[in-house]
Amino acid sequence: MSNENFRIVIKSGNVFDSLSGAIKEDHTIVIIGNKIAWCGSDSAFDKEPNDEIMDATGKTILPGMIDCHVHLQATATPQYERKYLRTTRGMVHYYALRNAQNHLIHGFTCIRDCGGYPDWGPSLRRIFDDGTIAGPRLLVANLGIAQWGNQEAIGPLEVLEYERQLSEVKTGVDGVKHAVRDRKHSGADFIKTLTTGGVLHGMGSKVGTSLFLDEELSAIVEEAHRLRMHVACHAHGREGIYKAVMAGIDTIEHGSYIDEETAELMIQKGLYLIPTQIAGLSLAKPEILKQLPPEVAKKTKTVVSAVMKNHKIAFNKGVRFAIGTDAGT
Prior knowledge:
This protein has 329 residues and is of the alpha/beta class.
């Protein structure tokens, strides 16, 4: 046990052991700073004079949960296009802070932000890490690496031109390697890229479209891993998922049209699927669908109807899954 002057002690609770699946009754947890320093039975606990005791008798204590796919700057409204056009860059800092703290309140002590405007992510991470404001542990991708011309961006021409200046990535191996280094320099913890279009991005964004050349995807992975960063890839359509898996991308985000062949490859390579099912199921509610642009509503219903079946195939095959809500969409 530590001799630190101040410890938070959660005493006499029933601790859920996520490794064994068992509930360990009458256990105590000792926290020093932002780390769990000790956990054991009440009988083995030695109280120190300056301990702050929290009595958890009769209560169950869970480990902090991890959400592997969020967008903290987003507002989770069906009127996202209107909201997008009325939101200034400065406002996204406050949305991100509010959303991160909401995650913490609901038991998520670590969250992975899968892309947004640059700058706010690394800054918010540092503010949480040094204890200035309470918040979860953050992993941030900052600005994603997207193939320019993929029809993901929405808005009037002036907005699209701003997005181009902000996020355009040069074609080819050298271009994407430079983009990886740029994200590293900006403070990103990992790389987020895309190999297909999206569901919520309008008529021109097709989930079956395959983005990036094979050599570009391989270069992204090679450079990110060299810099000790992992790579996450937004991929809905089968071809885009397959190309991401073949390139060795570490996590497949969404994976709506995964098939048996691709699932087997993921198992061989030890890759993870972040299914984000709750986002699609929430969007597919009738009261939400009627607020979406018609082409987006149609695409949402089509994709959601395929997701559950395809994810079940992957799960039964033995693909590794991790929690990801896509909170913010």
